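Re: weekly structure request thread

Next one in the queue (47 aa):
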Amino acid sequence: MVRFATGITARDLMAVANMLDQAKLYLWMFVAVVKNVSEAYCRDRAG
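Done, posted below.
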């Protein structure tokens, strides 16, 4: 196991990368929802 100067192991880095990957998925979903809502709102305002 590779140990870095800060005491963080490669396994910790993998866990963080995994978390970021999941967060990216949620962020993408959130952005898609916001985009849909704002588009619907703009259409509603435009009449």
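Residues 22-47 form one domain. The radius of gyration is 20 Å.
Next request, please.
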